[in-house]
Amino acid sequence: MKQNRPAAVSRQKTAVQKPASIYDVAKRAKVSIKTVSRVVNRLPSVGDETRKRVMEAVEALSYRPNVYARGLASERSFLIGLLCDIPAAGSGYIAALQIGMLSRCRKEGYHLIVESVDERNSDLGHQVRSLVAQSRLQGVVLTSPLCDMPAVIEALNNAGTPFVRIAPEKSLPHTIDVRIDDHAAAYDMTTYLIGLGHRRIGFIKGTAGHGDAKARFEGYLAALADGGLPFVEDVCVQGQFTYQSGMEASERLFALKKRPTAIFACNDDMAAAVLATSQRFNLKIPQQLSVAGFDDSLVAQVVWPRLTTCRQPIEEMAQAAMSILTQRSDDNEPFEVRLDHELVVRESTAPPDVQ
Amino acid sequence: MKQNRPAAVSRQKTAVQKPASIYDVAKRAKVSIKTVSRVVNRLPSVGDETRKRVMEAVEALSYRPNVYARGLASERSFLIGLLCDIPAAGSGYIAALQIGMLSRCRKEGYHLIVESVDERNSDLGHQVRSLVAQSRLQGVVLTSPLCDMPAVIEALNNAGTPFVRIAPEKSLPHTIDVRIDDHAAAYDMTTYLIGLGHRRIGFIKGTAGHGDAKARFEGYLAALADGGLPFVEDVCVQGQFTYQSGMEASERLFALKKRPTAIFACNDDMAAAVLATSQRFNLKIPQQLSVAGFDDSLVAQVVWPRLTTCRQPIEEMAQAAMSILTQRSDDNEPFEVRLDHELVVRESTAPPDVQ
DNA sequence: TTGTACGCGTTATCAT
DNA sequence: ATGATAACGCGTACAA
Q: pTM of the predicted model, to two decimals?
């Protein structure tokens, strides 16, 4: 497999120039390193004249503080961790989260360090402890399902590492959570479908135990109730947020004597599966069946017809989490940040055929 | 000094315990820190008895070396960087790459640090220099299009930071590249389509200037030639690896007087667009038109019918890159690692209708 | 085979 | 407002 080309030259360590240190800056600006430190960290009590001189030196030498020295000497390591479990790491959801975090990092001089834990490994607490113990991460962003695991939370608490949870299942004392109102979002979507004239609306649940999945289901129920529709247990099937589970769920729904005229899946991947299954059953979308998803992921726009779905502002959620972690306020009030969702109507939904 | 770190964000009930340092381990094992260091770093010249004592102490204290101290004191920071440009960061391609890198990191005690640069910002070199300068990353993985930008390469070289390029466009002196054989892969796919009986095979090119895109086109041409088919310029249209460009390309192909019976798109996103457009034109897939993609991304399995495509072993590529970067051999000759591709046949291709 | 002492670049504690 | 100097935890010449 390896094709070795004739090696002409080895690595060019010739031109490698050592980056400037705080001493170099201090010397050039004719101040002490402490003053440089003050300027770089935007601390007060530095004369205007001095500050200007230092900043010029910084610019001239392209000085950037060394990440390791900082991490070693202080509590502000400028490293933010994203902790995710391997199975979920490939999703567009995590990717979007990362993009949000990255843009914020770049703006504020932080770095993103991604750590994975194997959810299937029993000793999760040990894994997290081990990761965080000597990393001195300034903060950690937790995603589902990790954010709802006691072992993870406890390990983080013991290490004294601040963390923010994204869309966790349950509230916990002393945590900060960022989320949308999943209940309201599902309520809105269901109400929209009812408004189109659908009276029999199928539902594909998200993974059991996921908090957002549960909230969405309850929002669906509430909308049915408010819309004067009965809850029909048959048209609600369990899914697991995967495309595959969506296939199975939709097959079960299509096998019903009395099919729903609309199906609301708990995320876009499962909704896409409904679309695919519909093709096999020769059902025209949206004429014979309306399909709605959740997330507004890439998939929602790539399938045909494009999915009506509910957009989560994932990047904004990531940025909110970053803000919380980078502003080290010493008042540790647990709280919840709740961002807005948005109904995105596309071609996969329409009024039902008159039968 | 600071025994109790103020938990800025999430409060913990019990006091945080300071993690064990190399001194703690040394004291417990009754050896010097140097010996501990030797054991931890798996260096030779340690007595079996001593090594065992140290390892027990390490275990007992849950000792993990401090990332920052290591980075500060030595060349081996145990940090590997993944450099990607923001527009591309959301793709499944990058996600898969990360998963491969992460699993390797976990196994070998490394950490993954993801850095983004804004490709649209003019001063790319400065961005990269700034990022890498004081980070002392042990190595960097470069993806397209960054891996083909001279400013990026130069900045990395100047900093003396080793890097591996994933599927770069052009060969460069003194670099290490990991890739599949795009030419052969496209050749195989085209030959497969010819084997089905197709005589008129459309092609949607990838972004101009991308090396893999070019190689795939040439593989397509070679297969046509070897299959005794003429090259028809009309059925080759330019795409840009995006879903949108695939829509436009397929519309142009469908507008031809003499349509192709099969279309081979340079990636799955564009192939998915062909599928969608086919629906609008009421073309039955694969009966009236065969469609093939490239990458075997999530999209290929989520559309209907599922795409025949060519799988790139992205995770393996990531792991190969990691291996190269973590084994710091000083005789770093430039070379190329070429991994195998795999033809994945699904429902989007079939023999052409007899007209 | 094992240990001592110093340096890495930064922050933080005191002083002035 | 500014500066001298001690940590921070680990790797590594250099000794023993």
A: 0.82
